[in-house]
TrEMBL record:
<keyword id="KW-0150">Chloroplast</keyword>
<dbReference type="InterPro" id="IPR000307">
    <property type="entry name" value="Ribosomal_bS16"/>
</dbReference>
<keyword id="KW-0689">Ribosomal protein</keyword>
<dbReference type="GO" id="GO:0032543">
    <property type="term" value="P:mitochondrial translation"/>
</dbReference>
<dbReference type="GO" id="GO:0009507">
    <property type="term" value="C:chloroplast"/>
</dbReference>
<comment type="similarity">
    <text>Belongs to the bacterial ribosomal protein bS16 family.</text>
</comment>
<dbReference type="GO" id="GO:0003735">
    <property type="term" value="F:structural constituent of ribosome"/>
</dbReference>
<dbReference type="InterPro" id="IPR023803">
    <property type="entry name" value="Ribosomal_bS16_dom_sf"/>
</dbReference>
<protein>
    <recommendedName>
        <fullName>30S ribosomal protein S16, chloroplastic</fullName>
    </recommendedName>
</protein>
<dbReference type="GO" id="GO:0005739">
    <property type="term" value="C:mitochondrion"/>
</dbReference>
<dbReference type="Pfam" id="PF00886">
    <property type="entry name" value="Ribosomal_S16"/>
</dbReference>
<keyword id="KW-0687">Ribonucleoprotein</keyword>
<dbReference type="GO" id="GO:0015935">
    <property type="term" value="C:small ribosomal subunit"/>
</dbReference>
<dbReference type="InterPro" id="IPR020592">
    <property type="entry name" value="Ribosomal_bS16_CS"/>
</dbReference>
<keyword id="KW-0934">Plastid</keyword>
Length: 88
């Protein structure tokens, strides 16, 4: 199963995160399938590759809670049919 989750980058106490598509059995810094976005919580900046995110969501990838919140704020889910993804 594939998940969309955060991968930590940056230096100590100044974390930034890459949003990646990754196998659920991989660890946080493990090998990812594809980088689909970037999130900086300190500067409140977000970059999303929407076409790549939609590609993985249509094929059954599940976002983690944090990534789901980021995608909701960016209104990515408005481009999907609500029946295609579970948003518990």
């Amino acid at each position: 199963m594939v998940k969309l989750r955060l991968k930590r980058c940056g230096r100590k106490k100044r974390a930034t995160y890459q949003i990646v598509a990754i196998d659920v059995r991989s660890r946080r810094e493990g090998r990812d399938l594809r980088k689909v976005g970037f999130y900086d919580p300190i500067k409140k900046q977000t970059y999303l590759n929407v076409s790549a995110i939609l590609y993985f969501l249509e094929r059954g990838a599940q976002p983690t809670e944090t990534v789901r919140d980021i995608l909701k704020k960016s209104e990515v889910f408005n481009e999907l049919c609500p029946n295609q993804i579970k948003l518990n």
